[in-house]
Amino acid sequence: MTTNGFRAARAKTGKRQVEAACALGIAFETLSRIERGVQEPGRNLLERMADLYECSVDFLLGRTTAALPDAPPTPDAHDSARLA
Questions:
Q1: CATH topology for 1-84?
Q2: How far apart are CA 59 and CA 19, in angstroms?
Q3: Count of CB atoms within 10 A of residue 58's CB?
Q4: pTM of the model
Q5: Where are the domains positioned within the chain?
Q6: pLDDT tens digit string along 33-76?
Q7: How far apart are CA 13 and CA 8, in angstroms?
Q8: Which pick of 30, 39, 42, 45 has the fewest CB atoms within 10 Å?
């Protein structure tokens, strides 16, 4: 298992391991094992980590180097008023 995504995502948020673990509701040691590749997180934890770190699950798993997938642009208030 590639571990760079987990550590990189956490570092990008500026959170220490203990802060992230607390926010995720897991033990510090569990997060440390995940980041070192000793333990794999379950699907639920992966989703919570992606939410906390504001990145994609694919980034955490090392499947992509883009933290977030490209999202279509959303219309702003001016565009919405013009379309109405």
A1: 434 Repressor (Amino-terminal Domain) (1.10.260)
A2: 20
A3: 16
A4: 0.75
A5: 1-84
A6: 999 999 999 999 999 999 999 999 999 998 888 766 554 444 55
A7: 9
A8: 42
